[in-house]
Amino acid sequence: MTSDTTLDAAADEAMAIRALYHQLERTHEGQEWSTKDDMLGLVNDVGTLSRLVMAAGGQWLPEGDIALQTKDKLAESLWWILVLARRLDIDIDAAFADKMQRIDAGLRDSIARTH
Questions:
Q1: Per-residue confidence at 5, pLDDT binned at 50, 70, 90?
Q2: Domains present along the chain, CATH in parentheses
């Protein structure tokens, strides 16, 4: 990744917010959510995001500002991913950079084979 990558800084911020949620969970549920619970939170939000993408294409008509809701749900889904990466001890900056490099190389190879 380039030097202007902020995923690691964003993950720091995500974990600070997650710590606040953990306080509420201990108060209201008697314990903090597990990593599995966090994954369920992400899946729920991705489901909602899916419906909002459908709405943007005119296939579903939710209440309110679709663009604002989509922006918020994308950001919240990214938040969950950053939290999960930290909780699973994954360096998200390195993982993302590695994945993008491998995709880039694979696509370039595919393109070269088609010419």
A1: low
A2: 8-114 (1.10.287.1080)
